[in-house]
Amino acid sequence: MMQMTGAELIVRLLERQGIRTIAGIPGGAILPLYDALSGSESIRHVLARHEQGAGFMAQGMARVSGRPEVCFASSGPGATNLVTAIADARLDSIPMVAITGQVPLSMIGTDAFQEVDIYGMTVPITKHNFLVRSAIELLEVIPQAFHIAISGRPGPVLVDVPKDVQNQMVCFEDFPEPAVSAAAPALDMAAIEEAARMIDAAERPALYLGGGVVHSGAAQQAVALAEQAGLPTTMTLMALGAMPIDHPLSIGMLGMHGARYTNFVLEESDLLICVGARFDDRAIGKAVQFCPKAKIIHIDIDPSELHKIKAAHVAINGDVAAVLEALLPRVKVKLRKRWLSHVESLKSRFPMQMPGRDDPRTHYGLVHAVAAALDDEAVITSDVGQHQMWVAQAFPFRRPRQWLTSGGLGTMGFGVPVALGAALAAPDRTVVCFTGDGSFKMNIQELATLAEEGLNVKIVLMNNNSLGLVYQQQSLFYGKRVFASKYRGEPDFLKIAEGFGIAAVDLDAAANPRATLAQALQTPGPCLIHVSINREEFVFPMVPPGAANTEMIGG
Amino acid sequence: MIEQVAEPLQQSGFAKVVLELEVNNHPGVMSHICNLFARRAFNVEGILCMPMSDTSKSRIWLLVFDDQRLEQMVLQVEKLVDVLSVRRHGAEHEVFDRLERFFH
Lengths: 555, 104
Ligand SMILES: Cc1ncc(C[n+]2csc(CCOP(=O)(O)OP(=O)(O)O)c2C)c(N)n1
Prior knowledge:
A: Rossmann fold, Rossmann fold, 22 helices, B: about 25% helix, transferase (chain B)
């Protein structure tokens, strides 16, 4: 018979689940849990400076490792501060378990100090959530939370634990087994055979990879399929790295800021094989005009994604790695010389243009210079805005989980705490965060956490002293009525970094920016690398909002 | 920028469907289900929920219109962890008819 408090039980269950690092911030309603955590020998706590930072650190750990990770917050404002990071994890299918303190059960519903209904608030942004009503329930709830977070399509789960439940004594015989993920759906062999026949019969097939390929660890199978069947392969923002960008079959990222030729190849395709992607509007533009000539094979672990935006001719519900594995031996080897040489000609006629790529003080040049100073082991994170798109367009991603970005929610403030999480989970890797001055200020407080942990995180700040992507939209689509997108003040980011105890270099002032950059990236420990970027540089090419992917402007 | 805003979908022209859900019986289940319909502006015409003989479970009856979003709606309901099964019946199902006398 074992006896312990609910709080101790949570800590033991997290230890048994293999959790080694938890990011969070304490407060009254979660103090029993923090007290129990202080006694843990295997779990290390990282004290964030804002709960959103803690949520994104957990995400960074999960995005790098593929494992579910944990964050803690107190009740009320602590819990509400987590909301954005949870919603972000939901939209990008990231496995995460958020544990929040709650006011004691007897006070729930009384508007007690720091009481909010975080359970109610997180219903639409979690895969599932729990309000724990007695300590004994934790024996089921904690393993189930992990099981749900990692099974099928991954996602965030919230567990709200009232303070008295944390303090309640429980007696029980045995610990439950740590959670494992549910078995994948059975393979639909008839559909897989049909898909193989369609691939063999197609003249101009294209492969369209989404984040599901990364989550499922199916990059190798996806590349093998492309090579075997001669498939030009496009990736969504979430899938960059699934196929190395310099692979001869890669046609890069599709959609709003993809290269023109990529969208043209898809336009001409007669078969689209969509693997672990969800026909997001930023990727496909106007849905009715996307791949108008193509039949569609759609493979996804989430049945509700099939036929959601585009009706599929063959829809296969399953783990994409397992489905591709079964598909491979059934697909004929094809060279597809005609189609692939046509793809090449589209590529040379409508290539991705990257002006300034040799000058490390321009946007594309900077991204290239950073890439040149790193190897493929580095992890790259981004914030949200123009800089994010420039990195997506220009950085040579070559492996899955190399690129961590906020795709579905597009959350400014994502980059720095996710980089910290990545560095916590993968301390041997260099982690580089590309950020903009607007996004940087949204979680800038985590510089304190970064300095304290001394992580190997380099922040490349592309400073245009504006909300660049907003400025771009107003300039292009709102008659140049620029409003609320240019900053009037101009903080000294170098001093700010130094104030937090973080080394900083300014490429603007460097005599040899390439050398200064390489040196900063190669010196272990945190560093801010500042570069001014011309505000008049826009992300091109671009599909205007509401247009079809083939109606691009610029570039 | 001028955008075409879609007219709210007129549901009344569509046939009615009765959905029968078997769910776990604990506080919060109804909010998970109602939330799904509410945020998609999918009107639930009728709703009835009672514990089953095994009181750890409840049966929920929903009366909805069979518009083109119903398919996706059902798939989303099936994804909820506390929803154990979803069955579809035609409008001729008597559960809501029998309740009529409490309302009219
Ligand atoms: C939290 C949040 N608020 C607002 C937005 C809308 N938004 C998208 S990009 C952007 C500007 C980003 O500016 P910055 O980080 O400086 O990057 P830049 O576009 O200049 O490279 C804004 C305000 C957002 N994506 N996230």
